[in-house]
Amino acid sequence: MNWLGLTLTRKFTLLLVGFLVLQTVQIGIGIFGILHVGEESTNINEAGRQRMRTYHLLFLAHEALEYRSWPSEGRNILDNVLADYEAESDRLDALASKPAKSEKIREAIVVARVHWDREMKPLLLAFDPSIPRAASATLARFEAHVPGHMRHLDEITELLERDVTGDARALAIFQAVILGLTLLVGIIGMIMARFIVTIPLRRLIEATRSIAAGAYDKRVPTSS
Fold it and tell me: I need a labelling partner for 96 at 20 to 30 A (CA). Which of 6, 156, 169, 208 fits?
């Protein structure tokens, strides 16, 4: 088994290097998978929180309309929630710009952002609880858009969940391939050890015993 013209030491060194490379790749894929899935899970959670923020804004507007003015720090709370909503929308826009994301995800994010910027946000900014009649009409229009906006947000969340599921499946397959190659290297190493080391050594021991037993005038087969 003098393949590639390598010495015995170099053959086993080559197998050892291959094994270590495969192990390094497997560990790297595992770390990348954990970080990637964690990041995608954060995206899913934050996209889901947009629902909560939308309902929170609606609740604050209803409360202000009831009192015909913004309650104590109510306006500040609304501004903070609105700022969080805008920040998450910007982050989703950045996520949609990544080439790795599917066209469906990009379209869903764009549709939700356009619906918010053109239909809902202007109504919320125009809402003035000190003018009850106009505020009531504005709030009714805003509330009418909420179910449709929820569908947009649900679609984003669902698509992100599918995306992370597909990524996790691909990583699992790749890990299985690396594991298979690692096992193959191990099997090759065992076969080499048997045919290059164990069998020749056994024959050498048998030849040594034969010579020690007095077989000086007989041809004793050995392998190098």
Answer: 169
Q: Can you read off the two tokens belonging to residue 124?
A: 């919320």
Domains of the chain with CATH codes = 3-185 (1.20.120.1730)
Please count the other Cβ atoms lying within 10 Å of the Cβ belonging to residue 48.
Answer: 15
Residue 60: how many CA atoms within 13 Å on its side-chain side? 23
The model's pLDDT over 167-185, given as tens digits with 9 standing for 90+, comes to 888 888 888 888 888 888 8
Start-to-end CA distance of the chain, whole Å, equals 11
Burial of 12 (0-12, 13-18, 19+ CB in 10 A): middle
CA distance 91 to 51: 15
pTM, rounded to two decimals: 0.69
The span from the CA of 137 to the CA of 149, in Å, is 19
Would you say 165 and 102 are in contact if contact means Cβ atoms under 8 Å apart? no
Alpha-carbon distance 63 to 72, whole Å?
11
- Convert 175-199 to b/e letters by CB count within 10 Å (16 or more is b): eeebeebbeebeeebeebeeebeee
Q: Are 92 and 156 in contact (CB under 8 A)?
A: yes
The one-character DSSP state at 69 is S
